[in-house]
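Fold Annotation — chain and its backbone

Encoding — discrete vocabulary of local shapes
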Amino acid sequence: MGNEVVVVRSASGVDRREWDALVPPAQVYLSHDWLRAVEECFGFELVLFLLRDEGRTVAAVQGLLVRDPDAFPYHDPTGALFGAYEIDHLTRALARDRSPQESAEAAALLAAVVRTEAARTRAAGYPALVMTSPYGYASDVLTRPGADRREAIGELLLAIEEFCRDEAIPSQSFLWESGGDRELHRALADHGYLEFLSDVEYELRPGPCTSLEEYLGTLERKRRNVARAEIRKFAEAGMRVERIRDPDPAAIARCAGLCEGQQKKYGLPVDRAAMERLFTALLGSPRLGPALYVVRRRGTQGADFGGFLLCLEAGGVLHPKFLGFDDAAVGHTCAYFNLVFHHLVELAVTGGPHRIAYGMGSAEAKRLRGCRPAPVRGWIRFSSPAAQRRIEPYVAVFDCLKKQLLGHQDGSVPR
């Protein structure tokens, strides 16, 4: 098997059927339609590796060339190890079970190490080949059912290393790898990749419940009462959730504007025109199962809505992906919780998707509403042995502190 690895420099250079035959049904962010949409709308530089056996593609992996570490947050290996969010996490982990003085001393030492190592890593690691799905935060090696997965992963990792040598790309990484794929983990370790805990992602499984009220009954009493109060407050304010099945350009533009506000809130780069193009592409791709939900006051119509949520659905899994709210329009009506949680749970328990993949972030809100955590791993490798040796102890400490913090918080992160 695997007598040839073909490197393609764009998703448009691969046949959709050829690629999607490898993609698990629920993995929407590795699908051809998703990769092509984000590539064309944002100008991502994709590199796809296809393993072919006698002309038939049996395995593949997608990568993203990152030439500017500041261009695309969350697709930056330096940021995954040294970003402000990560350092805040590590500082909180250092403070646990230590005196204020010890915590302050440890934080000062961490800050000094980060200043030095972040600069060195940027110098030694870019351009970087990041094996992830742009904007989808999914990393995996795709294989056809029945293929020798261990052999396929090994051949693709060798092809990645050869490509990086030929193109003078000094680092390779798998960011946001989730799942318990031991074959992939073993292969990455064998090829010199350093493992670290990136974050925790959450999913919600409503189980056998047949109504939202029945699901709320499964929550602990205090959380159940809070949820009912959120639903009541939303209704009493004259708010409702509506699905727009055929959004016009004005509605899509409104969503892009609301999304822009959401990105600014978290200090992320803003490109409203690109988001508008992406929403148009996603809503026009039935294979991705798109659905646009908006929050509006009774009596309004068209693009006059105060919040939106764009979801994708595949393989019975709902992916809430893009959202935004106009605080002046929705006020203190608990619009976020009603749209993002209560409405989606109601869809799921009334015959919709069997689980909701909420992704990373907002851990407390998700955990209190019944979501379950699962670890997300990162893997990084430097072509230079000297750079690899230098970063290895930092990655080991980083991984230990992240496990200390997130394991304490959620109880299920493997140590």
